[in-house]
């Protein structure tokens, strides 16, 4: 070993009938094994860690080798289909750390041990029915071991042939078994040694056709589930379909369609609107785009599941190590991080607008919002790209989430994701709490909540609940997994994936846009361009120039031109879409002059602020912003 050999020396000229114990050609420079270049009788033939790239047809023809090892030949990619034809007595084959793409099966029928560790290039494992006597398999991927546990799913065609063969043999062997029982009873009764003699002459008797049938009849109950195969399928790589069951399979399609349709509707209407782009609309477009990516991710997962129903482990390696899973993983992390970042910005903007409603010049400008969102895009893109360059990874599980935790860098990455999402959630909760206090602050503590206050409270609670339901389960189970005590496996993680993880992506377009007055206005005006919903659009267009009073008289917005143009409406906020017209009308009936004054105040308030209460204890009117 280690002598610098460039080719395998021809050993066929060795004149000996003895079986060599070891032929060791490790750590040389051998580049190929040609046809009939090896002819030897040996217990072990080792050509490990050479530069072999090709093994030609019938390379070992005429040899008798019990253990053949080609381990560590990283350039070995092509082994001819007939490479092992003519090789006798092969029981142990080691192809670890090679680059082979296809494992040839001819000549390997008698193998009892197959070793292929760190052979990541072999994606498809051949039918296990090609290995009649295999007892151990040490492979690279857990999914390959699924072939021994579920042979019918791994190769249905070969399994059917095997089952038909067993039926034929059973049919033929049944009468022979009855005869054998009668013969055995007679032999046992006479205390004969013939059975032991038969054991001792097993190899000689194999030549008999009748004995071959007897042996075959005795081995037809071969169970491949007893094969010792490693690595064992685990919690991250189970032998199950991608979605696991039909309930999840149907649910993931529904969630994906809702997310895509809802967010596409928001994007189309807001981008196509003839009203100029405001800060809230700009933020909503970013949110809808982020959530749309989540819908695309779910479609990728669902479509892969649909293609691999019943035998996912046959497709698992190609999927998880391929481009599809990398794209899906990137989309889901990018979507999740950009969505939570945008939600935080939207909520902070609303809180700022309501808290400082009277200060016209203290508003978030569109240019500033664009810069803030640029930071969000960079952060989300970076966090999504890190698993692509080896920090954590998307290939660990079938659902392509970055769950790999091999070293400190991976751990820091996962902790960063959890901490950022957790902080963002609490910022959102704090902002909505402050907004509600600002709205209620003008009323006496003893006063009961008005209908408007109740509506605000309920809608704020709904927003906080959806954020909490999305983030809390993932954070909890993520922390337990990072601490080394995972409470759920991948099968149960898929429930979180379908019902909790994309919850915000489905709910956001409805909570922040589709159910608001402003979105309906933009939608009907857009449809009216194509001749649809013209009457509804006319009503919205008529309401743009002024605000109807309690008596049905429209007060024209004469002061609007004096307000800064960049401070139109805080979009589509659930808080800001509260209907308080009943309260305003009651005030108008009591004091028409006061109503007119309030209406003028509405017109000069940025973001179309609407008074939620007449006056607080300090004599100041409280306002809640409405979106344009």
Automatic annotation (TrEMBL):
TM region(s), chain numbering: 246-271, 283-302, 327-347, 368-391, 411-432, 461-483, 495-515
Subcellular location: Cell membrane
UniProt keyword list: Cell membrane, G-protein coupled receptor, Leucine-rich repeat, Membrane, Receptor, Repeat, Transducer, Transmembrane, Transmembrane helix
Topology versus the membrane: Multi-pass membrane protein
Cellular component terms (Gene Ontology): plasma membrane
SUPFAM superfamilies per UniProt: Family A G protein-coupled receptor-like, L domain-like
Gene Ontology molecular-function annotations: G protein-coupled peptide receptor activity; protein-hormone receptor activity
Any single GO BP term: adenylate cyclase-activating G protein-coupled receptor signaling pathway
Superkingdom, taxonomy of origin: Eukaryota
G-protein coupled receptors family 1 profile domain mapped to chain residues: 262-512
Matches recorded under InterPro entries: GPCR_Rhodpsn (IPR000276), GPCR_Rhodpsn_7TM (IPR017452), Gphrmn_rcpt_fam (IPR002131), Leu-rich_rpt (IPR001611), LRR_dom_sf (IPR032675)
A Pfam family this chain is assigned to: LRR_8
Primary location: membrane
UniProt record similarity statement: Belongs to the G-protein coupled receptor 1 family.
Protein name per UniProt: Lutropin-choriogonadotropic hormone receptor isoform X10
Name of the gene this protein is made from: LOC107266991
